Amino acid sequence: MATTEDDVPMQNPPEIPASSNEPKYGGFTRFEIELEFVQSLANPMYLNHLASQKYLQNPQFVAYLAYLQYWTRPPYLKYLSFPGPTLRNLELLQQERFRQDILSPDLVGRLMEEGMRAAVDWHKEA
What would be one Gene Ontology cellular-component term for the protein (predicted)? Predict the structure, then answer.
């Protein structure tokens, strides 16, 4: 088990594929729970909610966001439905300034516009 600089214990990333004898939490494996959570980070409104609830000020939660960086590498990367915005926001969340600024409705709106523009451009190219 790894530790962060604040001595917050962090587990190693879950194994892929999740084994059938892996413990379940509410009927889901740790892999499934972490996948759903990391993908939710693609939503700027959700980031704003996390900030408004002061999660982004909690050192243990910030350490958890750092731990989730394993999603940026294979084999985990291939499981992300929206890797672009998910990984971009995960990277931005590593910065204290961004964790503060995401409270701004202007920043949330700008991120949403960028996401919509990227989706439209991607469909034009496809």
Answer: mediator complex
pTM above 0.70, yes or no: yes
Sole residue written with tokens 């985990």: 76
In order, the DSSP letters of the chain are: -EE-TT--EEPPPPPSSPPTTS--BTTB-HHHHHHHHHHHTT-HHHHHHHHHTTGGG-HHHHHHHHHGGGGGSTTGGGG-SSHHHHHHHHHHTTSHHHHHHTT-HHHHHHHHHHHHHHHHHHHHH-
Q: What is the pLDDT along the chain (126 residues), one digit of tens a residue?
A: 444 444 555 678 987 866 678 889 999 999 999 999 999 999 999 999 999 999 999 999 999 999 999 999 999 999 999 899 999 999 999 999 999 999 999 999 999 999 888 777 766 776
Whole-angstrom distance between the N-terminal and C-terminal Cα of the chain?
Answer: 43
Domain 2-125 has CATH 1.10.10.1340: yes
